[in-house]
Amino acid sequence: MALWPVLAPAAWAQAPTAPLPPPRPDRPEMPASEPRSENPPPADTPVEKTASDDNSAHSACLDRLTKLGLRFEKRPRVEEGRCSVENPVLLSSLPGGVEVAPASLMACPVAESLARWMSEVVAPEAERQFQSAPTKLLIGTSYQCRDQRNGAKLSEHALGNGVDIMGFEFAKRSPLAIASQSENSPEATFQSAIQKAACPIFNTVLGPGSDAAHGDHLHLDLRQRKGDYRICQ
């Protein structure tokens, strides 16, 4: 704020009241500063993401996979007609040396979510029910360029955003295929527990009991819906 000089009362009485003379011709008036916008953008206006933002997010995801101990290969972006996969990886094993069979192509966040699900849910539940660690995760479909079964829109598989789990192999017991299990059996308890506990990790969980199309596998995907709506069946 500019500071005005303090004048004695006599000086105030002698101050001229006539308007100031116009500027000299050799000293033009200074241009007025640009007016400020009367309607600035609201504070919560979203900032448009840039390619560098995406690259940073992709790199951060890959770094997390490495720190978690996953074995994977970084692959170039997939472009196949309407189908595409951002930041794809070919995943071959999960933490604890759990093999992914076959090695499967998927978006990096899906691989990260699978690692969390196996470590936090599947391995502890296998120990409780079978006293055995999982050694292999059996994948049916990961990336596949196709529509949803009803043909309404692209499948999440077409974006590398979903995987179908067919079953597991273990260190000290026979393999387990996803299916309708005998009621009250350790297999039924295990399968029900890992299916329910997948819901906070994935945005879509479909399996036996949801519909006929998912009677022999668990479909897990990260589809984004309005209001963070999830499907868990």
List the helices and strands and how they pair.
Layout (H helix, E strand, L loop, with lengths): L8 H6 L36 H18 L2 E4 L3 E3 L2 E3 L2 E7 L3 E10 H23 L3 E6 L22 E9 L5 E2 L8 H11 L7 E3 L11 E4 L9 E2 L1
Parallel strand pairs: 5-6, 9-11
Antiparallel strand pairs: 1-4, 2-3, 4-5, 6-7, 7-8, 7-10, 9-10
Helix pairs in contact: 2-3, 3-4
Outline the biggest β-sheet: 9 strands, mixed
Q: How far do the termini sit from each other?
A: 65 Å
Number of H- or I-type helical stretches: 4
β-strand amount: 15-25%
Q: Based on DSSP secondary structure assignment, what is the total number of beta strands?
A: 11
Radius of gyration: 31 Å
- Portion of residues in helices? 10-25%
Q: How would you characterize this protein structure?
A:
The strands form 2 sheets. Strands 1, 4, 5, 6, 7, 8, 9, 10 and 11 form a 9-stranded mixed β-sheet that branches. This protein has a two-stranded antiparallel sheet with strand order 2-3. A hairpin with a 2-residue loop joins strand 2 and strand 3 (83-85). Residues 1-21, 23-38 and 43-47 have low confidence and may be disordered. The longest helix has 23 residues, at 108-130. It is 25% helix and 23% strand. It is of the alpha+beta class.
Could you provide a short overview of the structure?
The protein is of the alpha+beta class. It is built from four helices and eleven strands, in the order H-H-E-E-E-E-E-H-E-E-E-H-E-E-E. Strands 1, 4, 5, 6, 7, 8, 9, 10 and 11 form a nine-stranded mixed beta sheet that branches. The protein has a two-stranded antiparallel sheet with strand order 2-3.
